[in-house]
Amino acid sequence: SVETVVQAERLDGTVLLAGCDKSIPGMLMAAARLDLASVFLYNGSIMPGVAKFADGSEKEVTIIDAFEAVGACSRGLMSREDVDV
Fold it and tell me: DSSP string spanning 6-75?
C-alpha cells in the first residue's frame, strides 16, 4: 500500500515510520522498490501499560496479554469486566 500511494500521488520522496516487526520489512521493501529519496524512522516497540482489575490488583500488560484475555474470557476463566480494563 505504501508503493501504491507514493506512485498515485507522484511523490518525489518518502518519510517512512514503522514500529512493529511486520511493518518494518514492508516499509524497507517499499523504499527499495520505489527507488526514491527516503528517510526511515523506527518508532520503537509498544510500551506495556498497567491494568487495574476489579479486585484492586494491578498488572503490567502488553498486546499479547490482550489476546490471551479474550481467549480466557471466551473459556469463562476471566470476567468481561476484567477484559474491558
Answer: HHHHT-SEEEEEE-STTHHHHHHHHHHHHTSEEEEEE--PPPPEEEE-TTS-EEEE-HHHHHHHHHHHHT
CB neighbours of residue 14 within 10 Å? 19
The top-scoring range by mean pLDDT among 42-46, 60-64, 67-71 is 67-71
CB-neighbour burial class of residue 2 (10 A; exposed 0-12, middle 13-18, buried 19+):
middle
Pair 68, 43: CB distance under 8 Å: no
pLDDT above 80 for 45: no
Residue from 58, 57, 59, 60 nearest 46 by CA: 60
